[in-house]
Write a structure and sequence with these properties.
By secondary structure, the protein is α/β, with parallel strands linked by helices. The protein folds into four domains: 123 residues, no CATH class; 60 residues, Monooxygenase (Up-down Bundle), CATH 1.20.1280; 159 residues, no CATH class; 134 residues, no CATH class. The chain is built from 19 helices and 15 strands. Strand 1 and strand 2 form a beta hairpin. Helix 15 packs antiparallel against helix 17. The termini are close together. The N terminus is likely disordered.
Length: 546
Amino acid sequence: MDFEYRPISGSRTSRGIFVHNASFHDSIEVLFAIAGARHSAASAVLPSGISHRNNNVKIHGAPSRATVQQGVHLQSLSPSLESFLKLKKRFLFCITASPSQLSTCRNFVTRTVQTDLQAFNTTSMFRAIPKNVWKQPLDLKLHTTDEGELLVPFTRYVLQSEQTRRSSLAFLRFPDLPEELQLHIIGLCDVPTLFQLMHTSSRVRAEAEKLFFSSPDAWFCVDADWILRGCYAGDTLYDTRFLPFIEQLEIRLRWMNEDYWMSNHHCYGDQPEEVQAMPADRLEERMQEFWQNIRTHFPRVKRVTLCESYLRTRSELPPDIFRKLAHLCTPNIEVLFSFLKAQKRRDLRAERSMWQQIKKIKHVSAIREWTEIPPQVKIRVILPNKLFSGFLGAYENQRYKHYLHFQHEYTTFVMLTAAIEAHHFNGHHDPFQCPAPECEAQFDQPGEFTTHVIEESEHRKYIEPPTPLKALFNENGVRLKLWRQNRDRAWVAFREQWGWEGTAERRATEQAALYQIENDPLYAQRRPAHDSFILNAVLDALDGIV
């Protein structure tokens, strides 16, 4: 979860504190923490001195906006708070402040977040740790979402095992074999070997490439927001050269309802008031653009999974907005849904719920209905990152290092819980007790411990790796420290390269960045260079991060 300063729309003198990359529960707690309350209290007050036109808190995207006046308690929020806090992962709310009040505002928010929110920031995380992860080999080099789901970096996906590398022998007569036999041998190769064959002769490369991207278990992951922005190379860290070959695509999004389409991705130039008044046909237009971008940039795609990470109850599945989106897809693309299904409460453990359209016979006619299906065994692959170059590359490099650091922190926790489960239950039965003081919880079956620390987040700090694995996790701790240092060094390098706002160095760097956007294919954008997504992101990062 990140905090960011940026100009308030329509104001040249005020800046706001925005939260983004936050889940629904994070956003709820952040809102109340910044308002000075704890534990989701129903009333709150902001300190005096943080105000702009008597509106301290503005909640964006609300049907009716909720505001807090200076020194006045917020007795109740809009009944629709839950619906519009789920709108999107950016710009959920802000505190506005004039330039003279910015320091006070920053100190208050920083202090509040660091003290009151530290527990809230982890309470709602890791709810979707897979139930069988303790049965899998321990792998600290995977990536993990903030909900605890495992992702495979592309470099890890194509990495050959030590045994394969040791047993590799030169097969110089392979080109002399009949073509049918060559194809048969290539068809027996595993994914890492196919990737190596994609760098050989054109004939072998073509067959290996086809088999590599048609693996039925591999799904390549991209963000829905990026697709809606047009899949431009300058808007992402991905290497977009891979897109035309992908056959199975997982599109990840935090939460989707009609407002996601109507306000989060409005037309360039639309004002907020215009967005709220958009007719229903704009919704369909946005959805059609979504599928058009997929068809254009992923021409080989055969299956698309719309993967949402917001927790829903069983009665909500599948939401009408997903049905509507799938209905607008072309028939040659199969669409599946993947939801996080809450068990009882949203703060308890969740599991994936997969949905597929299945043909059924009713009254002599065939219809297609959405049906829940057993979870699939999937390898969720993160696309390789592109080459970072120039002034914009300095920004993307520090962003990528920031991402890596937190991904490895998340993976460490997931693998730690899995290691403890496996130590007690893999091949034998050794019940154990929660390590937290004064907690008498006893774990007799696999999965009980993980569920417990998901729901009792304050107990996580007492977890220690099993004795046989302490050296492994200590080494991982050293790597985490290096990741943190790499992240910080990348930020300092980026900061120094761009200079400070108003300086000649900053003006020269901005001009060089504008030239790069207009001429470097890796940083191509939909919007004009001076108003491009990446340039705005760079300037916000330089001048607005808490």
